[in-house]
Amino acid sequence: MNISHSTLSRRDFMKGLGLAGAGLGAVAASAPVFHDVDELTSLGSNVNKYPWYVKERDFKNPTVEIDWDTLERPNANNFKSHPRPSAADFTAAGVVGGNMTDLETPAEALALYDYCEKEFPGWDKGYAGAGDIRSTALDNACKFMMMGQWPAEIYQGGKRINVRNAILAAGGTATFSSFLGPQAATTIRPQDFGAAKWQGTPEENFKTLRNAFRFLGCQDVGCAEIDNDTVKFFHKIKGAGSGFNTGEAGGKQIAFKDIDEAYETADEYAIPNKCKYIITFTARQSFEGTRRQAGITESFSVWYCYARYVKMICHMQEFIRGLGYQCLNMSGLYFSNPLSVITGLGEHGRMSSPAIHPKNGTTNRANGWALLTDLPVAPTNPIDFGAYKFCETCGICADACPFGLIQKGESTWENPAAAKNGLAQGQFKGWRTNNTDCPHCPTCQGTCPFNSTSQSFIHDMVKATTTNLPMFNGFFANMERFMEYGRKPQWEFWDIEQPTYGFDTTA
Amino acid sequence: MYFIGLAVGAVFALSIYWLIKQNKKITWWQWLIALIATIALFAAVQHFYGSLAENDTKAAWVGMGIFGIIAVILGVVDWRLIAGNKEKV
């Protein structure tokens, strides 16, 4: 018999209708929600072009719980605060390449040799403890003017000149980067010529800054306003050796004042209250370089970030000055993790120092570098892509830490590293790393499951599932281990075809 | 993507050719199994080449194995089920 009509029974039709309804419901539950026309005409919920599964949250309501009443401005970042051994101390302990050491102690350096030799059989510490000769050479090449530091002796006109000493003798500082920015003679301001400052809506200003940042090489940009709560992410005083002017002993006050123009004195960084717009941005590292770090220090991926993005801050300070506004470099004067979280550049995670970015995981250098400006900028909200919940069951980075300095177990209000990192108890429900003893070794940054690029579909599928169905997080963490994503042998870096700067700049 | 398209397209074309030749009635759930098998095949090939591009060799082979086995099992089961169906009149 020739069937010319549908053979679908009423029962099958209803069953199909139910399945379609469930599917639509699932899509609706996970899709971004439209609220009102104002939202549509403002920045929109996805200014940084995050994947579809990234959800937006309310301001000051990130995935990590914060007790704003308990939170207080810390005195200073005590990172690098322990006494540094000399090169002779390292040599006496049997550590090669004493001048290549960064923050580790001789005992930690020896532990790192063992760790890398076990993790990658055949790995050789090389003549300087940083691995093969090519990696060591690129390490040192990328340290040139890192952190904005003026070079010591370099060739100038056929002679060895100590540029740093010459600038210090002239009353300058150890770095070209500074709180107030270069304010070069060539960076003219419209108001100095009787012209009006740039005038734009906060949304236009955000887009303007984002385009400038991306032109200069960064990826994503966030913004939040300083209020009585968010000001607590800024230190009270500058720590020694952090941020700009690394040669200084530290101790300058960081003061928010009712003044018109920012200024810097011998004992104070004075910030006008009107410079209340925090701008954060991501500084991407080479993906393959980051997960192939080995030896006593991080790698050229890190050093080049510090060389490139510190200079980029100067460009941004000059750009905003050219618009007629102030732009203050806050490097080393704040905690990057909470500012990144509050401005929607990432989620707080177990590693605690870098926030986890939805596209790049922890392969950003200190995700969320911060500037302050009086140019009104539209805010970006915190985001949720399941990273915080994933960290609750993952723990790959903490397991990988050669020194056990990353907090294990579930997130806590207590700070087990309080005696070391100086942060009070009960400020947030998350994880802390003992940053005082952390030697910034090569390990944890390359282990995060969120680092994965999106060339295989599986990563986006897993991330989308993680955002909406956290019950699978334990399974995904185990698969991450089994599939051996994460860190790779250092020597393979030199045989891999890589994009410019080591990352996909179209993302 | 070239290899993914080639592999999935070849399997799809052969399947359709076989179906037409067999002149069989096919139920909706047999179509569903075929669809899932096709998606699994697509996933196996895409994941394999994607992971190799990411320099994650073990992940490439493991993923290929998982999705590939699913594709093969579902494909064979569906093939035998359809083969047992009555011919269209």
Automatic annotation (TrEMBL), chain A:
What the entry lists under SUPFAM superfamilies is as follows: 4Fe-4S ferredoxins
InterPro entries membership: 4Fe4S_Fe-S-bd, 4Fe4S_Fe_S_CS, RDH, RDH_dom, TAT_signal, TAT_signal_bac_arc
Task: Name the coenzymes or cofactors required.
Answer: corrinoid
Keyword terms:
4Fe-4S, Cell membrane, Iron, Iron-sulfur, Membrane, Metal-binding, Signal
One of the entry's Gene Ontology molecular-function terms is:
metal ion binding
Superkingdom of the organism of origin: Bacteria
**Source organism of this protein record:** Dehalococcoides mccartyi (strain CBDB1)
Q: Which residues form the 4Fe-4S ferredoxin-type domain?
A: 381-411
Is the keyword 4Fe-4S in the record?
Answer: yes
Cellular compartments annotated:
Cell membrane
Its chief place of residence is: membrane
Q: What is this protein called?
A: Reductive dehalogenase
Does this UniProt record's set of keywords contain Signal? yes
- A single cellular component GO annotation: plasma membrane
TrEMBL record, chain B:
Q: Which keywords, in A-to-Z order, does the entry hold?
A: Membrane, Transmembrane, Transmembrane helix
| Segments crossing the lipid bilayer | 6-21, 28-49, 61-82
Query: What name does this protein carry?
Result: Reductive dehalogenase anchoring protein
Q: Which organism is it from?
A: Dehalococcoides mccartyi (strain CBDB1)
Q: What is the taxonomic lineage of the source species?
A: Bacteria, Bacillati, Chloroflexota, Dehalococcoidia, Dehalococcoidales
- Gene name of the record: rdhB
